[in-house]
Design brief:
alpha/beta, Glucose Oxidase, domain 1, seven-stranded mixed beta barrel, two-stranded antiparallel ribbon, globular, PMDh-S-like_dom, lyase, lyase activity
Length: 140
């Protein structure tokens, strides 16, 4: 087991324990409007993560964007094999949570401190929903 360098507590969480490379955004996320659902790349012009592949990543977003169609988009990208391992939101909404649960994606909401204070894109992290923690295991 890896040494834990930093720990962030989350308020709510669902899913399996997952580990992977972090993608940390300062901007919110909509799986319907920000993401190309055939490639898994964020393609919304001007998005701070434009050009970033989210497949198999642990994705950190301050907010969720989108309404009812965003929920089914998670199932769509999971079915296509291009979904992230986990979605870590500062604030999300019931539709996004429902979509993640339906797609069997790990999802969390709320945090004890903003992840970007200690986690950078490329770092290796573990999300443990049962313990309600995110652990930084290795820096990029």
């Amino acid at each position: 087991m890896n040494e834990v360098l930093e720990t962030i507590r989350v308020n709510r969480a669902f899913g399996e324990v997952v580990e992977g490379e972090a993608v940390v955004s300062e901007e919110g996320f909509s799986p319907r409007y920000d993401l190309d659902r055939w490639s898994g790349v964020i393609t919304k012009p001007g998005h701070k993560l434009e050009g970033t592949l989210i497949k198999d990543k642990i994705c950190f977003f301050p907010t969720a964007k989108g309404g009812i169609a965003a929920g089914w988009a998670f199932y769509d990208i999971k079915h296509k094999g291009i979904a992230p391992k986990a979605l870590v939101f500062g604030v999300t909404n019931p539709v996004m949570v429902q979509g993640a649960v339906f797609a069997h994606l790990t999802i969390t909401e709320g945090w004890s401190r903003p992840p970007r204070e200690c986690i950078k894109t490329g770092d290796w992290v573990r999300v443990d929903p049962k313990r309600k923690v995110i652990e930084l295991l290795k820096r990029k």
